[in-house]
Design goal:
3-stranded antiparallel β-sheet, 5% helix, Metal Binding Protein, Guanine Nucleotide Exchange Factor, Chain A, 134 residues, single chain, 7-stranded mixed β-sheet, 10 strands, 34% strand
């Protein structure tokens, strides 16, 4: 398979390789994503399970159904999440990619939850709730 993109946790114990372009790229402004990452907004990409190859074990996870978030248990870096309502897909935090600028978000999710001081001047669609059809 041909590598499309690579990523890793901060310490490098967990690495991954994408074998296809992401099918989705979004910002999320929801409180849950902000608290999970410690960031004012989160950018993430969607990939199908069969389009990612892992090196190292992603053994840290937490969350409440239907969403399970996962991270590197060695360094604590958040890597992504799964949603039980979206079988066969995985969502990776764009910042975990080696070249995150290659996959710019195309939409905003949970726009009403955006922090008031965060200035984002783009013309992307602004969804009131999720940007991923469930």
């Amino acid at each position: 398979m041909t590598s499309v993109a690579n990523g890793r946790c901060r310490c490098g114990a967990v690495r991954f390789e994408l074998t296809a372009k992401p099918h989705f790229a979004s910002y999320c402004h929801c409180e849950d994503c902000r608290r999970a990452t410690g960031a004012p907004v989160v950018a993430f990409i969607g990939i199908y399970d069969n389009e990612i190859e892992w090196q190292g074990k992603v053994d840290g996870e937490y969350g409440e159904p239907p969403v399970t978030r996962f991270f590197c248990s060695s360094c604590g870096s958040p890597i992504g999440y799964r949603d039980d309502r979206l079988a066969g897909r995985i969502y990776l935090y764009t910042a975990a990619l080696d070249e995150p600028s290659r996959f710019a978000p195309t939409v905003h999710a949970f726009w009403p939850e955006k922090l008031s001081w965060l200035m984002l001047e783009d013309d992307l669609p602004r969804n009131k709730t999720t940007s991923v059809r469930r």
